[in-house]
Amino acid sequence: MAVTIKKAALIVAFLGVLSFFFGVIAENKKPAAGTPIPGKDVVICKYPWDPSVPLGYLSVAFLILSSFAGYWFLFYPYKGKSVPQSVLFQNTSFFVFFNVALFTGGLAATLLLWPTITEHLHLTRKVHHNMDTQCPTAKTGLLGGGAFLSLDSALFWLVALMLADNAREDHFDEVEKDIKAQAHVAA
């Protein structure tokens, strides 16, 4: 089964949408705060059951898969023909969208990982020696922002895929014209 641009686009989009959904659900399920339980010289934080940590990690995993797929499919040889990378990067629009896709993917990973790891630390380190501890959770809004950036990243990968396909067609048209011109001159 050969991979086509349409199949590649569907894979990248599907993985990006999954990352988006997991990130949004993680943001919505995150508790506002824990309950402080005072003890002798310590405060123990009790948090309600929280699926935001595994959902946050799933969102990051699907973001990485989407970005990897987008990157890989850009340079995949379609129909047994590969194009030199220099040809793709000579196209200014492709160059811009490629770099924006990389940047938004990195920023999305940062905004998804930061609150997920912070929340994970809050849930595992429950004993505090500061008696004024209010049992905080990760900053609100970062998971949702990361989820939207994850979706944006997938969309930028899709645009880069379309631009790469156009650059491939232009390159092969030029190669075909050169071959015909050389055959005409040789005859």
From TrEMBL:
InterPro entries: DEAL/Modifying_wall_lignin1/2, DESIGUAL. It is a multi-pass membrane protein. Its main location: membrane. The keyword Transmembrane helix applies. Keywords: Membrane, Signal, Transmembrane, Transmembrane helix. The chain crosses the membrane at residues 55-74, 94-114, 141-164. It is found in: Endomembrane system. GO terms for cellular component: endomembrane system. Pfam families: DUF1218. Belongs to the DESIGUAL family. This is Uncharacterized protein. It comes from Hibiscus trionum.
